[in-house]
Amino acid sequence: GISCVPRIGYNHIWKYLIEDVEFKKQLSVEKPIVKGYNFFKSGKVLGLYSKSENGLVYVKSQVQPSYSKGGSVYAVKIIIHANSEIQKAFCPCPAGNDGRCNHLAASLFAMEDIFNKTVNMKETDTDQLPCTSKPCTWNVPKKRKQEPSTIQGVNFQKHVYGKESKAPRAPTPPVAVSQSVNDFESIFEKIKNTETKTGKKIGLSYIIPHTLPEKELLPPSEPESINRTPAKWEVVSPVKDAPLSMSDIEQKALRAKERLFDSVNDIKEIVEMTKGQHETRMWFDVRQPRITASKSKRCLLRPTTSPTKAVSEVLYPKQVQTNAMKDGIESESSIIQIFEHETGNKVLKSGFFISDTHPFLGASPDGLVDEDKIVEVKKIVLKEGESLEDGMCRLGIYKRFEQQLVLNNNHKYYYQIQQQLFCAKRSICYFIVSSVRGTHRDTVQFDSAFWENIMPRLESFYFDHVFPELVYPRILTGESRWNKDLQFPRLA
């Protein structure tokens, strides 16, 4: 207790924290008083203890830090003269070397509060009051560990000395704000009308949600049964609910690898049955366990780059269709028709090609010409007043070299074309880049030296990261990827 401590008032606190500092020609601020009072009112002073010796009173208090963790406290020590003058103080906090920190101020305000309550109690006829109505004469420490509460239940209040605190308002229950599909469709319709009137594209039309085309990109998924027999083009059987042992995972991986390499026997059937591409369920099934051409460059990572995100993009791509993607899909057939009319070539539909030597790779060209050529179409969006050539250079598809446009062999489109040629076993690609201001056509040859350089890296990435996740998912369930904390079984 603090029964032997002389009376401490606000004037003593002000003198020690402000006036004595100014007398020593040191910088004085009211921050310790303001924050210290809020510390005290917030219940951070847990206890006060004192003893008297040789005309001096030694006080020790326990004060919680501003952000307390694990129940830690600061032990504040104060020396007070019998005439109530504060002689010296110390606190182990970073700002308490000179004894003028927030924790010290909180301790002094706690002592002042006890003296005020004692005086008020004496001035009242306590004999007429029941014990439960009497103010307490000791400092009630705050619990160090508290139950967690919602943010709505937290009372954010600044305490000012000498002013009564307002009663906290009743917490307002959170209200969920939802946006209906009709609201988005109405906004999108207004934007499209404005674009039609002005003849200009509005960037917001590429951001807000919009309705998908009549033929959805992804057919509705069917519920999988644990005992369902996988189709012959599927690589991995459905994952069971029960956890598998490492031995079971190894056996499952061996079966999956065997099915992966056996799929080369069905290449012709798969190509024929997937000519509808995104309109067929099978197209999604056969490309899911493989590195497709559009992800080729994405899988070539630096040694210091984590593969987790790339694996997620390969196996769990987000089915998001922007307005630009929708426009590109809808424009593809008309762009190919113009190409046929201007060149005299007949473009056939293409299915999904699996590499007969590396069946973990696949590709879906936009079209086939003769026996040795493919077609790949890209629709790009230009800025206002930008030419097609400038737009292609801005996007990095082409580079200017000696006043000529040269295809950038470090762009993802170049990697995509090379993998398409490799998987389809063709040597030439008609590369078409189209926009509202014209069309650019180029002929791209298969670069065997380029492909031989990246093939080992793609194979390593697949069997080190993609294949383990395919066999027994960990990233999908929020765990760390295989071969980071847990090694995947090595296969022969």
UniProtKB/TrEMBL annotation:
Coiled coil: none annotated. One of its GO terms (molecular function) is zinc ion binding. InterPro entries: PDDEXK-like_dom_sf, Restrct_endonuc-II-like, YqaJ_viral_recombinase, Znf_SWIM. Residues 76-112 form the SWIM-type domain. One of its GO terms (biological process) is DNA repair. SUPFAM superfamilies: Restriction endonuclease-like. It comes from the Eukaryota. Keywords: Metal-binding, Zinc, Zinc-finger. This is SWIM-type domain-containing protein. It comes from Stylophora pistillata (Smooth cauliflower coral).
